[in-house]
Design brief:
This protein is of the alpha+beta class and 120 residues long. The protein is 35% helix and 24% strand. Strand 2 and strand 3 form a beta hairpin. Helix 2 runs antiparallel to helix 3. The radius of gyration is 17 Å and the shape is flat.
Length: 120
């Protein structure tokens, strides 16, 4: 995510880009103002795509729901990526697991990644 300081519609605009820098959209204005304030104060962000929306006849415009991970000042992008990787593995596993026979070890692995004193 990058602040788009030359955006004529919103001075707090945050551009959402792929890892290789291609723009895929913007955060909603009400979210962008909080994100921009935190970015200016040393917070870092990482995001993963939750799902694609739209594209139907009734709603042809595409959108994307994303999960934002906020890192307090001092949290490295590597730490955040490790946490996101754990979430991604858990989401993928849960998509194929039946809730009745889930392995509690999966929950323990995700909990091991969670350091509430450093991540929001």
């Amino acid at each position: 995510m990058e602040h788009e300081d030359n955006n004529p519609h919103d001075p707090n605009a945050i551009r959402v880009c792929t890892e290789d820098g291609r723009q895929i959209g913007h955060l909603f204005r009400n979210v962008a103002s909080d994100v921009w304030w935190r970015m200016q104060h040393g917070f870092t962000y990482a995001a993963i795509s939750a799902n694609i929306t739209g594209g139907a006849k009734a709603n042809p415009q595409l959108g994307m729901n994303i999960l934002l991970l906020v890192g307090r000042p001092g949290v490295s992008l590597e730490e955040m990526q490790t946490y996101l990787d754990g979430i991604s593995r858990k989401v993928e596993a849960d998509a194929y697991d039946d809730r009745s026979d889930r392995d509690e070890d999966d929950d323990d692995e995700l909990n091991d990644l969670d350091d509430e004193s450093r991540l929001e």
